[in-house]
Amino acid sequence: MEFLQELYDKWLVIKPYTDTFSFQAVIATSYLIALINSLRKALKEKEFFSNFITIANVCTNYLFTALMMEYALEYVKSHNSAASAQNVYLGFVIANSVMLFMMYKLHTTFSYKFNNLFFKVSKLFIILTLSHFIIWVKFVVLDLQQEFAQIHYVYSFIVLYISLVLSFIMLFPDVLRTKFGCIVTFSLPRDRNA
Hints:
Oligomer: single chain
Number of domains: 1
Transmembrane segments: 20-36, 48-68, 88-104, 124-141, 153-172
Keywords: Membrane, Transmembrane, Transmembrane helix
């Protein structure tokens, strides 16, 4: 447990001297590569338009939420207070909810078909949104900053895991048809052909 706490304190705790360049930049790069690859395939008509719409929405949402977090980190640096920037988690909840709605509307307007990637991304974003909401309630509503540190560890693991899985399934959407794709997206093997 101490090892997990040290990792958490070193890599994931926001402090007044936290550097704004982080592991998230690597994930953002993979999202950008996935978007460019999807656009290239969509223009050559080698990919479903549904996949392109889904990937474009995820990339846009990631860019927006990353900018929100960078702004929160800069705020923490300049004001030496992390407590006042904790409403950023509620901003993530709102941004993710709007993204899911917009992704659905874009699919119904332009694609008329919902691919497997759409459903997996939607499921992962619902889990991510609930995680953001739980951590916001803990920090802001209940004002529990240091208590129940296990929630911080679980939250951090969920956010990083889902970010990595999203980048992987957007780079390789065909993996969703395999058992491995079912495992990493929390799906039962029987619905991989749905």
